[in-house]
TrEMBL record:
Its EC number is 2.4.2.14. Catalyzes the formation of phosphoribosylamine from phosphoribosylpyrophosphate (PRPP) and glutamine. The active site is at C9. Its cofactor is [4Fe-4S] cluster; Mg(2+). It comes from the Bacteria. In the C-terminal section; belongs to the purine/pyrimidine phosphoribosyltransferase family. This is Amidophosphoribosyltransferase. It catalyses: 5-phospho-beta-D-ribosylamine + L-glutamate + diphosphate = 5-phospho-alpha-D-ribose 1-diphosphate + L-glutamine + H2O. It comes from Tectimicrobiota bacterium. CDD domains: GPATase_N, PRTases_typeI.
């Protein structure tokens, strides 16, 4: 397959609201951080499905006129994460298909680890695929099922797929929400008057003034139709392994996921980091926005003042034209600038949530030194990211992950910082588990993948401790 299956996204659905499309548009807007590549909404007026999908941000894709083409009182929507691979409208979601029983729309957040082998099997039996999206595999499995009731077809299809999915499915008449048995990605249920809402994160419920009823549980399927919300748990139960990286970086700090507010968890990580890796310095400076809550926690715990020594420009688009005479660290400078008066002559502790390739961090450090900092100490509120995620977060290959092949001291030298320390794995897990009483997947920090890969789909760059 030319493109890699890769999806880290935001999903939103509503049943029983006269302005379903508009509410979904707002929900997607709140979930924009989960995906910026494409955005789509499918509605139903109980007779047929209406589809509007485009490349770009929610506000670029949907205008008043586009939303008027989406009638009906139920809808699902999807934001797709920008990936390094080819991005194409054919992979944009919701995925919509017509099969002999009617229309079907699917919005998927996650990543299936056995999509390639299922696809090969389906193609062998005559299915023709039109995208390289793993979500399409689910649509085909539903279509070829011999079961009669739609729900049974969905359950049969989901019994065959392995990996991560927080999923919304919609027919002309009903909405189905499903979360994989491990519960990798978040999914919550809300209420807006008489209407039922499902969303990746609670920040989407807040914007539309819906209440947070509860999370969709790992392994749970919700059927939402004229009779209300029905729950079932058809899968063999397993220990949930929710994604710890959602707390570290991905989710929005104002959301409550997996039973706890993201901001508070990030603050706790910062406090733990200060206990584990103290350093004598003058100011604590976050890399905005992702490092802010952890830096607050670090500052409170250490007593070292918190300062916004780096300011982010929030209006930067994807690409920028650089003048002929190139500007040093242009890519970072266009997004971030130092407050020179704050850092000049100071011993600065820079806090970020994670280091991926290290390229951004290196430029930030150089910028802070350029502004006159006397010392720069870096503290990271998660352990070294050593392994790619195959459950729905877009991470580069092991070769590109700086911590996969280099020691902390080697990374320190590369970043040109006076000291570098990461949060310990124990520190991360105990802080998160204490706050939420949940169980977590931390494969990106350990390489211990809770859902193993079928023989033919083991990613090439992985050694195989999990077989
Ligand atoms: P770098 O120094 O180039 O490794 O960049 C580190 C920055 O990337 C940190 O500020 C992180 O918040 C951010 N980051 C971490 N994980 C991801 C991800 N999956 N996608 C995009 N950015 C990320």
């Amino acid at each position: 397959m030319a493109e890699k299956f890769k999806d880290a996204c935001g999903v939103f659905g509503i049943y029983g609201h006269p302005e379903a499309a508009k509410i979904t548009y707002l929900g997607l807007h709140a979930l924009q951080h989960r995906g910026q590549e494409s955005s789509g909404i499918v509605t139903s007026d109980q007779e047929r499905l209406y589809v509007e999908i485009g490349m770009g941000l929610v506000a670029d894709v949907f205008s008043g006129e586009v939303l008027r083409r989406l009638p009906g009182d139920m809808a699902i929507g999807h934001n797709r994460y920008s990936t390094t691979g080819a991005s194409h409208i054919k992979n944009a979601q919701p995925f919509v298909a017509e099969y002999m029983r009617g229309g079907l729309a699917i919005a998927h957040n996650g990543n299936l680890v056995n999509a390639t082998s299922l696809r090969a099997e389906l193609e062998e039996n005559g299915s023709i695929f039109r995208s390289t999206n793993d979500t399409e595999v689910i649509a085909h499995l539903i279509a070829v099922s011999h079961r009669k009731p739609f729900l049974d077809r969905v359950v049969e299809a989901l019994t065959r797929v392995r990996g991560a999915y927080s999923l919304l499915l919609m027919t002309e008449k009903e909405l189905i929400a499903a979360r994989d048995p491990y519960g990798f990605r978040p999914l919550c249920l809300g209420a807006l008057g008489e209407a039922h809402v499902v969303a990746s994160e609670t920040c989407a419920l807040d914007l539309i003034e819906a209440s947070h009823v509860r999370d969709v549980e790992p392994g749970e399927i919700l059927i939402i139709n004229g009779e209300g919300v029905t729950s079932m748990k058809p899968f063999k139960p397993v220990f949930p392994h929710q994604c710890i990286f959602e707390f570290v970086y991905f989710a929005r700090p104002d959301s409550t996921i997996f039973g706890e507010n993201v901001y508070l968890v990030r603050q706790a990580l910062g406090r733990q980091l200060a206990r584990e890796a103290p350093v004598d310095a003058d100011i604590v400076v976050p890399v905005p926005d992702s490092g802010v809550p952890a830096a607050m926690g670090f500052s409170k715990q250490s007593g070292i003042p918190f300062e916004l020594g780096l300011i982010r420009n929030h209006y930067v688009g994807r690409t920028f034209i650089e003048p002929q005479q190139s500007i040093r660290h242009f890519g970072v400078k266009i997004k971030l600038n130092t407050v020179r008066r704050l850092v000049e002559g100071k011993r600065v502790i820079v806090i970020d949530d994670s280091i991926v390739r290290g390229t951004t961090s290196r430029k930030i450090v150089s910028m802070i030194r350029g502004a006159g900092a006397r010392e720069v100490h870096m503290r990271i509120s998660s352990p070294p990211t050593t392994h790619p995620c195959y459950y729905g977060i877009d991470t580069p290959t092991r070769r590109e992950l700086i911590a996969a092949s280099r020691s902390c001291e080697e990374i320190r030298r590369y970043l040109e910082v006076d000291s570098l320390q990461y949060l310990s794995l124990d520190g991360l897990i105990s802080a998160v588990e204490e706050a939420t009483h949940g169980r977590y997947c931390s494969a990106c920090f350990t390489g211990r993948y809770p859902v193993t890969f079928p023989e033919m789909e083991v990613p090439q760059e992985l050694e195989l401790p999990f077989r």
